[in-house]
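We read letters as residues; the fold follows as tokens. A sample entry reads:
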Amino acid sequence: MEIQDDAFVLSARAHGDTGAVVELLTERHGRRAAYVAGGASRKMRPFLQAGARVVADLRSRTSDQLGSARLEPVGEGPAALFDDPLALVGLNAAVAVAQGALPEREPHPGAFLAFEAMMGAFALPEVWPAIFVRFEAGLLEDLGFGLDLSRCAATGSMDDLIYVSPRTGRAVSREAGAPYADKLLNLPPFMLGAQAGLGEGDVKAGLALTGHFLEQFVFHALNKPLPPARVWMIERLAEAGRL
């Protein structure tokens, strides 16, 4: 089997004296691991950082075998983020969520596009935490657990949607949700459209929302907790007053 695909590096670990096993998020072929000869070398190491964009030539004898890969770097990768520790924390969280949520060798082009948008957003300090919420919502949608925020689940109204049902992932209006407000998840306005501004607490509400459904529908089924890197990111964002 031979394939060529655009990809992001998710992780790399040394294998043998000179090689590395690299995990990739490819555009058309999903999450894949491959052996990269010379991956432990000083020359290759910068191109194997989490978040690095590459073109991957993947080869294996069978579809379920760990194959080999030749990687061609694209752009400067995550090096531009090295002066922003908070963005690096966000990058580590995005990688951990993608690695934990996406099944191996299963195509998820929507997840690749969500990760691509996330990587572009890390250069915008005031914006990327909100984009992280959208990134996680995109993963949920691509995995078949998309949130339905188009209209109220109870009345069908498209106006004044401020809650989400924690059971169904459907939006609920202010009036319909009032009697059950303490049991519903808050829906921040920016998740309804790009034109809505960010208010205090909106990112926190958004992360609580996507985190609930990632935990309920994805990680619980895999008998895993939400990634510690995500928890650490939320703590750091709180310390920085960015939630």
Notes: The longest strand covers residues 2-15.
